[in-house]
Write a structure and sequence with these properties.
This protein is mainly alpha-helical. The protein is 55% helix and 6% strand. Strands 1-2 form a two-stranded antiparallel ribbon.
């Protein structure tokens, strides 16, 4: 995808290649509908197993499976971030409640 120009090039830091996560997110967002997941084309409006001879190469199927795996990982990461944010928020709320002096009841 880098060679095709769809994704940004990595940067070399010491002996490692690394990618800027924000550039990758932007590149995935910018992918056009023309480059949509081929599995969506296969399974759209078709119940049951895929018939033979759909015209997709093994490379296209592999690419589609890879894209689906990436999407699942992205969703997992979003859920993890949301969970951590909620846990920190609840911890801050509890700390504020604990730090408040008790109210006088009349």
């Amino acid at each position: 995808m880098v060679q095709a120009g769809w994704m940004p090039r990595p940067k070399r830091v010491f002996s490692r290649l690394i990618w800027d996560r924000l550039q990758l997110d932007a590149a995935f967002t910018d992918l056009s509908e023309q480059q949509a997941n081929p599995l969506d084309r296969i399974f759209a409006n078709r119940p049951g197993p895929k018939p033979a001879g759909d015209g997709l190469s093994p490379a296209e199927l592999s690419r589609a499976a890879l894209e689906q795996a990436r999407e699942a990982l992205r969703r997992q990461e979003e859920q993890r971030i949301e969970y951590e944010w909620e846990a920190r928020h609840e911890a801050r709320k509890a700390a504020r409640a604990k730090a408040r002096p008790p109210r006088n009841k009349r």
